[in-house]
Amino acid sequence: MSDATTSSVSNWNLPNVLTVLRMVLVPLFAFTLLHDGGQSVPWRFAATFVFVVAMVTDKVDGDIARSRGLVTNFGKIADPIADKAMTGMAFIGLSIVGDIWWWVTIVVLLREWSVTLLRLSILSRVVVPAAQSGKVKTVLQAVALTGLCLPLRQVGDPWHTVGEVLFYVFQAALAVAVAMTLWSGYEFYRDVWRQRSTLRST
To answer: Which CATH class is domain 3-201?
Structure first.
């Protein structure tokens, strides 16, 4: 879709409403996850539900915008910000309650926000299409964070052992997600550098 067509589409459409909803869900998610220090089983389930809803709207709003020609400049800016705000809150919240190491959260957030801000700053001059590694990274993060939001270590017997095992399974999934996050970040910066070099030589 051309810039002219994009600018002619009204911002009042379903994809943008879903994007704004995802932004509104961020503080609600933080409240439910951190309630009682993250030790409440019902509140952790509530946090997981809110996070899943946010992840679903992230997928749905993009699909609707592209299929119905509802891509807008607002959506291009707000959608990645809403996405990074929710996943960022999940990393921070899970670090606060002790389920993710802080250094992991810091590394991931530095990568995510640096890529997002750079992508937005060069949006009108350099177009870097979403790479397959970035899509895989998003799925892996969503799976790992959803699992770690669950009250896996808070449940009592007879589910305690199962919860412990699942907790470490999702920790392993998180490790893979972090590795893919760093790799996709490298690919993004590499592609930006190549395109900028091409533009300067033409």
So the answer is: mainly alpha
Cβ-in-10-Å burial (0-12, 13-18, 19+) of 126 comes to middle
The first and second tokens of residue 5, run together, are: 């067509």
pLDDT, average across residues 140-167 = 93
Q: Which amino acid is at 193?
A: W
The residue ranges of every structural domain in the chain are 3-201
Q: How sure is the predictor about 192, in pLDDT bands with cuts at 50, 70 and 90?
A: confident
Nearest CA to 7 among 128, 124, 127? 124
| Selection from 49, 57, 92, 47 nearest residue 78 by Cα | 57
Burial 39-76 (b: 16+ CB within 10 A, else e): ebeebbebbbebbebbbebbeebbeebeeeebbbebbe
CA distances from 61 to 8, 17, 30, 44, 170 (A): 18, 9, 22, 26, 27
- Reported as a single tens digit per residue, the pLDDT across 62-86 is 888 888 887 888 888 888 899 999 9
Place of tokens 């998610």: 29
CB-CB contact of 176 with 168 (8 Å)? no
